[in-house]
Amino acid sequence: ERSARQSAQQAEERALLLREMQHRIKNHLARIQAICRQTARTSGDLGSFEKVFGARLSAMAKAQDAVTRGARDSADLRELLCAEIGEVVGGVAGNGSPSGPEVRLDGREAQAIGLIAYELATNKMKHGTEGGSPTIRWHLEPRDRQSWLVLDWSESGAEPCPSQGGTDVPGGFGSQLIEALVQGDLEGRFTRVFDAAGMRITIEFPLSQH
Questions:
Q1: I want to staple 74 with a disulfide (CB 3.0 to 4.6 A). Which of 29, 60, 104, 109 is the partner?
Q2: What is the rounded CA–CA span in Å between residue 104 and residue 123?
Q3: By the 8 A CB rule, do 200 and 192 touch?
């Protein structure tokens, strides 16, 4: 009887893990499909599509690697940001080195933040000032019995396009993807402000593991 109960419990646990894996795979495939479709719409030729789509898949892979590297099925926020940003802007040393308290992200949060960091870094290289790394800081805030992560991304000298105004978010796919990730996957808020110092982006969302 004891053996039968243990076997039944193990079978139930395996079924639960399988359902969770199927759910994650389904979400990943849906996101990849959306990114593929939108990247194709904004690419002028096949070579451009392959470059941009491949880079976005690489950003997702880095986030997944960060989650599975440790034994806690979570990713360290600072390590994830350094991995995603470093290859795009050529390093994150000096004042641009991400800093804040230790934060662990679960798989869903890591995937979202990884893609967001990649899109922001790519946008800086395309439209921001030359040289230097963005200044990235974060802290935790207690809100409604939850711990919220408040992450600030600042770029000195960055200016909005004339048609966008001071606080409007650009309408490109990168910005649309960031908003969808923050508001949908992270259930948080995204703001972008331009002033005399440059551009400041704030991302806020409740953490699952704090």
A1: 104
A2: 26
A3: yes
